[in-house]
Each structure stands twice: as C-alpha cells, then as structure tokens.
Amino acid sequence: MSTKDIYPASRVTLREVGLRDGLQLVKTSPSTEAKQRWIRDEYAAGVRHFEVGSFLPANTFPQFADVRDMIQTVASLPGAHGVALVLNERGANDALESGVAEIASVVSATEAHSQANANRSREAAIANVRRLCELRDASPHKPIVHAAISMALGCSITGDVDPNEVLRLVEKCFEAGVDVVGIADTVGYAGPKQVGDLTWAAVRLAGPKPICVHLHDTRGMGIANASAALDAGARILDGSLGGLGGCPFAPGATGNVVFEDLVFLCESKGFATGIDIDELVAVRQILREQMPNEPLYGGLARAGLPRATAARAA
Amino acid sequence: MSTKDIYPASRVTLREVGLRDGLQLVKTSPSTEAKQRWIRDEYAAGVRHFEVGSFLPANTFPQFADVRDMIQTVASLPGAHGVALVLNERGANDALESGVAEIASVVSATEAHSQANANRSREAAIANVRRLCELRDASPHKPIVHAAISMALGCSITGDVDPNEVLRLVEKCFEAGVDVVGIADTVGYAGPKQVGDLTWAAVRLAGPKPICVHLHDTRGMGIANASAALDAGARILDGSLGGLGGCPFAPGATGNVVFEDLVFLCESKGFATGIDIDELVAVRQILREQMPNEPLYGGLARAGLPRATAARAA
Hints:
The structure is a homodimer of 314-residue chains. With 314 residues, chain A is an alpha/beta fold. The first copy, chain A, has one domain: TIM Barrel. The first copy, chain A, contains 14 helices and eight strands. Chain A has an eight-stranded parallel barrel, surrounded by eight helices. In chain A, strand 2, helix 3 and strand 3 form a beta-alpha-beta unit. In chain A, helix 4 runs parallel beside helix 6. The radius of gyration of chain A is 18 Å and the shape is globular. Chains A and B meet through helix 8, helix 9, helix 10, helix 13 and helix 14 of A and helix 8, helix 9, helix 10, helix 13 and helix 14 of B.
C-alpha cells in the first residue's frame, strides 16, 4: 500500500492515538485483551487508523510491552492501518521486524527541548529519521515512515517557537525520505490562528505529501485548532478516545483532542469520516472499566448527537 | 452612552453571562454578597460587560430576586455595563425602572419552540420586542435593547433550523428598533462552519449595528464556534466563568462557552480583551465555595497560561 492509499488527499483521515499517546503516562493500563477490544470496537465504529504503541524498553513502559499483539490485531482487520513509535535504531529494527504498517519517530522543534528530552541535537534526530528511511528502503514490506515535529507550536522550555524553524525541519524530514510529517502541539500552547498559519505553510511546503496535525486540548483550544487545521488544508488529524493522554512536559495537560468530538467537528464541516459517533462513544466503557481513575473528556459523550443529526442518520 | 460606545466595532467585547444564564438552572445559587464579589473581582480582572439577572417572578427564580442589587453593583463600577433579561411587558417596566443599561429579550427561531416555550408565536415575540423598544424610547435613560434569537443554530424540537428564517427574524428585530441582535446556539448543536456562515450573513445584514454571538459548549464545539464567529466578523461574544450554566431544553448540556478560554482564544487571535486570565481564573474560587456541587470546566484553569504567554506578559 502506498502512502496515497493509506492517506488519500481527497478525504479526512482521523487517527486514534489513544493506545499510544493516550497511555504514555497512565498509572494503570488496560489489559492486552481490553486494548484489543478497544481496537476492534472502534474498527466496528468505522475507525481505520490506530497508533498502537511504542518500541521502548518494556521495563520502563510496560504498557507497550504487548505492542506486537496490537500490531497483529490491527493487521487482522481489513483496511485497518497500524502505527508504532520508535525513538532509536534498535526500536526501528524491532518495528521493521514486527511488520507494522507505519513507523513514527520524533524530532523536537527546538534545540533546547531536543537536548533536554532526547539528549541529542535536532540534527542528530534528523539523522536518526534518515537512518530509519534507509532501513525501510532495505526492508521487504517498506512501511510508511512518519516523522513528528514535537513542540512545533510552542515549547515547554523556550516558550515561543519560530515557525520558520519548524518548516525547515519539515523540509529536512521530507528530504530524508519521510512519507508523512506530523506537526504536534505537544503542550497545547497554540490557538487556531497559529495552528492555521503553520498548517497552511506546511501543507504548501509538503506539496503532494501528507501533513498530519497532532493537537492537545490542554487549554481547551483542541477542537478550534483542529477546525483551523482543516481549513488550512490538513487532511490527517490525531485524537484519542475521551481525550485520554497527557504530556510529561505539560503539567496539568489533559490529553489529545477528544476523538469523538473531532469526528463531530469533521462531519459538521462536511468531511465524511465513515465513523459512527454513537458506536465510538460506547467504546469509552472499556476505558472506564480498565482505568476507572483516568478522567475522560468530551462533549458528545456528555450530550449525545443533536436531534437534527440523529434524525438525518436514522 | 450610545450602542457604539458600549460595543465599539473596532474591538472584541466579551460578556460574562454567568450571573444570569449560568445561574438559570442551578440548584443552589451564590449569595447576593458573593455575586457582588464575583462582579467586582471580574471587573478588577478587566471584565466590563455583565448579564446580571432576569426580571422574572422571584418565587420561580429566587436566584434573580436580587437583580436590582446586581444592577447597582455594576453601575457603581466606572465603565462597567449591566444587562438584564425580561420576557414580558411587566418585566420590561421593572427593568426600565431599575435603570439597567441594557435590556434583553428573547425570540425563538422556530415557531414550534416559540409556542412550546413561551406559549406565543414568533410574531407575538417580535411584537413584544417592538413594545420594549417603544417603552425604551419613552424612558428617560433609554437603555440599549437587545433581542436574542434562541435556537438560531439548531432547535431542541425541530432539529435543523433554516438560516434564512433566522436572518428574517434578525431583520425584523432591527426593524422593531432593537440595538443589538443576538444569535444563540441555545442547545449547542452547531459546528464552526454553520456558526461562521450564519454569523457572516447576520453581520452583513446588520450593517453598522452589532451582532452578539451566544454559544454553548454542549458538544465541545464552543471555542471552535467562537473562533468561527470572530472570523465571520462578530465582535460581541458571550461566555460564563467556568462554563457555568445549562439549558432546560438540552439535557446534559454543559453551559456557556468557558469565559477564561474565550479570553485566551481572542488574545491568541490578536484581539485584545483587556482581561487578565490569571485574575479571571482566580474568581472561580467564589463559584467553588458557593456552589460546590456545580461542575466547572475550562482549559486555562486546568493548565494555566503557556510559558510563552506568561513570559510576554511579565
């Protein structure tokens, strides 16, 4: 499958990142069986893109020890697409061996955050991405390679981030052979104007290659920022069921954009997602059972579909 | 003071409606003294526009029995502007007598809701607004008259609402002598495209007269909708501290747009509000003490200002 088949430019793709980003910081994680049900039930609701875990040391991140099971679960569902995160060459080799359809890596937008978080320069992070692309090219199944620019809209260390530096990193990632570049508001600093402006520039810079916009709802701007990203031409957006997730660099941060609300937003703007909101909301029950102490967010879960939408769907 | 002085077209006006819309449905209401502190503390944070209560029968709505005290409190603060709601001629006379600076009334967007909610036709509601304007013209202090079109973006009875019917009502209100027309997504049905489209048309129809956009965050679209309303030219937006409030026609509805987050949105889009977000967030303590069982919402209260914004403000 080519990148264009997985992420067609003609429609919006919504990616469930709750199984990875959503579980990055939780104290108790769902069982493997529950995570598989989460994937299958969302698949039944129409979701096709899942970030399922990381290839990280299992003693530090036990919640991702079963990442290969998750990859298999997604691969067993026709038309479903799995993504796993790697941070170094060892992880990259493990991911390639697993057969996962997409491998994601991260480059910090600021030198200060790159050094503080990954103990390497941004140049070294780009070299890491380039190496990942080489390994992909040498692999039999050639997964999609995704590079996410973290802190692209504000940095927990430097505060403001120069958008031109972000765009230079986007360009370098594509030059390194990356298939999809992500722009991440990791700490939820941005408002819709900033998101729209950066997305607009990145989409034009990328040309036919896709840009993914990854937003956190830290300051309540998540859905407004997603709306601005869509207006600016982004066609891949990340979210997590119930807004699960947080960020180690953002105290008080409350997770990714709420997936259910993101679906409602897209449909309200005329972008068909193929996802049934009522069925999607029902999947939250798995999270409530497995992680009773994790707060879940979201307007659709609270209030249900409007009468008009419900009537049209019936 | 003319309408243009109260609502200058050159800047954004944010109105705190928590003291009226926010308290419409609560089981326990803050004391008069606490509401006065709420007003004074928000005033100190930079808020200037307050919807303070309704002239409704005090036995049905005891939370508004002290509306005259609230009007006095606002009137005592230089540059502050108070609004009170009325639903009939008796309320209008009481409001005129109170000296409140702005009197608001409501017209339902759909005939079905007008009949079910107010037991009158929309035509009768418009006649009521016209009578209010006549009473204003005959009064010594001539308060601003505001007519809000409820259910303008979706109706709890009919579902979809024809935007052309809403625009016709906007026109009729202005013809009746209204100074400001409000467009209300009373049950939080709309997404940003719908809000943007209707606001755009209403702002152009209104010409130099101001349009107020009143949004509820029922389905998590509140801030995205506010952003769309600003993009479409609206310069008056309502919100309530902590997203307080609900709606009798929207079970599970969770209040107005969060005021603090609305301030952040405006500032992030380059609209100066004159409001200090940290000081505004601190006022929530009054609500927590006075209404410990009311849920409060909001991203800024949770996560604080981003490092960049905080650094620039220092």
